[in-house]
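Thread: Modeling a multi-component assembly for a lab meeting

Hi all, long-time lurker, first post. My supervisor asked me to bring a structural picture of a complex we are working on to next week's group meeting, and I have zero experience with this. I have the sequence lines for every component (513 residues in total). Could someone generate the structure of the whole assembly? Inputs are pasted exactly as I received them:
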Amino acid sequence: MPLGLLKYGLTKKYPAKHHFTPEKALKKHYDVVIIGGGGHGAAIAYNLAKYHGVTNVAILEKSYLGGGNTARNTAVIRSNYLTESGVNFYSESVKLYNNLSNEFNYNVMMESRGQLTLAHSDAAIRSFRWRAEVNQHLGVRSELVDRQSIAELVPNLNMSEDARYPIMAGLWHADGATARHDAVAWGYAKGACDRGVELHQLTEVEDIIIANGRVNGVKTNRGTIHCGAVVQAVAGASSIVAKKAGIALPIHCYPLQAMVTQPYKPILTPHVSSPQVHVYVHQTSRGEFVIGGGSDPYPLYNTRATLDQRETLSAAALELFPFLTQARLLRQWAGITDMTPDYSPIMGLSPVKNYYLDAGWGTWGFKATPICGVTMAALIATGKVPDLIKPFELERFYRFEQINEAGATAASH
Amino acid sequence: MKLLSCPLNGLRNISEFTYGGEYHPTPDHRTTSSRDWAEHVFFHDNTAGIVIEWWCHTPSSFWFLAERNTLTDEVVRTFTPDELYTKPTIQHEPKPETTP
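Re: Modeling a multi-component assembly
Sure thing. I ran the full set together rather than chain by chain. Output:
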């Protein structure tokens, strides 16, 4: 291997391969059109092509591959949710993530580092105990831990009893992990394109053609395409795209801001989050500390960064990790989240025939990417809604059957 | 948006306000189906552009409406609810006639 690498490095002609479809004209007809070239869209295309033999597929992306919220999330993977539907869904996703690099033969830099959520009140401990029981019952590694275990898991955490909100206990989730978000989108897109799927970047869907309650095609800035089925996977713009198909969604779009410091030597292994001080912190494999928190206080379609949020996040991060006082911030950014009333996604059938929804990805989209690809592809290929995503259908809101995951967020929104 | 003009208290810091959701006329509870109620309660226009929404000045508990652009975060204007709601005319039950 090292010799092969050396030979490769010294050859003049690098056998570099294109990962994705080279630029080409749109075809007149596709079996499936996927709106949105992020992790989810690419994962759906990959599963359609590899496991269902559906390869006449186009991914239409208005900007570039994985440039939306796939690039803006903070790459936390976990399954310690609160409802049975939620835990089953996300734990299946974590399992798929664990094997994703092998599945692609492409390194997504998956690292199972564990996730620690902190309790600073009796009420939080009660809810953690509840979550731990639900998780363990469904086979997810999740347990309530005391102050001593916390100090052992994260030695540099501020355990002082004089803190504004002293740490009382924690929810330790050994399955918690992180992966490189770009690599996830690239791995899926590469695998899909290798099997005949076409990725069309800078291609924006302007309208959706519907006749007799059934989707027939899409109008884009590069011409009209006819197709048998359409799936929208455009978190952050779900309401805007669905409106073109005449569908209203129970979504409000809020910016969610995060920031990173300059890189430092490895010092923090797990993800640490606190719903009380509204912050989560982890150190990337590159050494940067990623600091994120709750959504902005009101809806907005704008990814600007605010000083308010920078101050709030910094104060909260310093409360947990005082050693970050000298750390310098490298950048701050925002993504647009699809917040649903119950903090669960909206997946599956829509009121329009052959038009499928993959929407409502608030702060839980990245971790669901692999399972979303599997289940949505199965739905499109077979027309049957997989049991795993049945509870997340749009119709649940009309039946008042919400899947409340508001209590299972990492940093409370 | 860092400041918001409250119709009662004037220009104040945004941190003094709470967002209260999109403005939608409330359907008549006597004639609305539960499906339409669900739509009223859960579904949103989520418009990218100018919207009308509820805001509350938290320290004074004063509710008002704002026209705001959700793409640029600029407030067009703020106004009191009586622009959209007329005061209900209270009809008193006729007093039962009492026989002397």
